[in-house]
Amino acid sequence: MVDPQIIERWRNAPRLTTFSTFFERTASGQGGAPDLARPEPDLSLLDFDLDCAAYGDTHTRLFGNFDSHYRASIPYRLEETCRLGAAIFTFSLQAWARTGLPATVYTLGAGTGCLARSVAALGDGRIKTLACSPTPANREAFLAKRGSEHAHFFLGPFFDLDSNRYAADADLLPFCDGFDVLVEDTTFQMYDRDRAQQLAFIAPRIRHGGILVQVQKLANEDQDAYEERERQKDELFKSRYFTTGQISEKNDEILSTMTNCQVDLKTTVSALGLFFRYCALTWNSGNFYTIVSSNSRASILEFVSLMVKPAIPPAYCYEKLPTALIDTESDPVAAALSWRKAKTMTALAPKRPAAS
Asked: Which of 68, 90, 140 is nearest to 302 (CA)?
């Protein structure tokens, strides 16, 4: 159980205080939207994979206001969402097939809960999903394009979802026994630097054989390298969607404060090691990382094997992928981590010239 004093510290964190106006304004469509272009997935980076394309089509049709802002802010985050979403969907279906009961997915603090809505829509009752956000406009966006009656939303910060709340709220009853997949998407960095305490709150909610997926923006011991990656993000990617003024405004309003709650990869892995036997790095885009963790060797290998290779140009990726960050000596996963082969839609893929 997390100390009530720590919970109170989170309640006074930037996400619920200095950032609250920005998130409400962006989620309600009153500002923050990219004014140059709307992000669309580049299927060529996904090798025109059928599963990623089907998931991406569902996901982009369920976009809310905040989703366009977020996907246009992180290089190739939309392609990573398609890759992750397709893997989460299939992993959840396989959990349903094993038990005959609906699989459960929780996207913690993920804006409009677009991933949760997309997976629930595709699952058609075989997957029940939950999203949470403390921003009322995100709840309105969630309900406006709910996609499925099996997608649920909790209005409030992640730390208000304790055992008592799950037991008392009828909408949360399907999730009382925990989650097969729990996704933390750039949320912890809005509240605190103490990753161990944040994980202590959510890790008990992950079912036996379940996985934790985290997308995090991480600090870097080399500040010059960190700043160079930020320049790459702003000048080469975000400039496709936002004006220079918009980029500068967000840097002043949000990013300078957010860095105070970021931690580096070493600190992240150290905290994860308190709760998980296995942890793998599966994506990197500048200062952003996707990390998958589990106490089940079979589950982490299964999940990674459901992903196609990272859909990102080499210039934006600074890590070798996939990489085992936490492993066991007795039953290691490092050598067995591998991507699946893309199910290329040949009608869309460019035709290769015939051999002479």
From this structure: 90
Cα–Cα distance, 23 to 6 (Å, whole number): 23
Judge whether 179 and 207 are in contact, CB under 8 Å.
yes
Question: What residue spans of the chain are helical by DSSP H?
Answer: 4-11, 20-27, 50-61, 65-71, 77-99, 114-123, 136-144, 163-168, 195-202, 223-232, 244-250, 256-258, 265-272, 297-305
Task: Write out pLDDT tens, residues 219-268.
Answer: 999 999 999 999 999 999 999 998 888 877 766 656 566 778 999 999 99
Q: What is the structure's pLDDT at 185?
A: 95
Q: Which two tokens stand for residue 276?
A: 């998980």
* Residue 179: strand pairing partners: 206
Residue 33 to residues 38, 164, 216, Cα–Cα distance (Å): 9, 37, 22
Residue 211, number of CB atoms within 10 A of its CB: 27
Q: Answer whether 278's CB lies under 8 Å from 294's CB.
A: yes
pLDDT tens digits, 177-219: 999 999 999 999 999 999 999 999 999 999 999 999 999 999 9
pLDDT tens-digit readout, 99-120: 999 999 999 988 899 999 999 9
Beta strands 278-285 and 103-108 are unpaired
In whole angstroms, what is the distance from residue 243 CA to residue 249 CA? 10
> Max alpha carbon distance in the chain (Å)?
72
**3-state secondary structure string across 164-231:** HHHHHCHHHHHHCCCEEEEEEECCHHHCCCCHHHHHHHHHHHEEEEEEEEEEEECECCCHHHHHHHHH
Burial of 17: CB neighbours in 10 Å, binned 0-12, 13-18, 19+: exposed
Contact between 262 and 229 (Cβ < 8 Å): no
Other Cβ atoms within 10 Å of 89 Cβ, number? 27
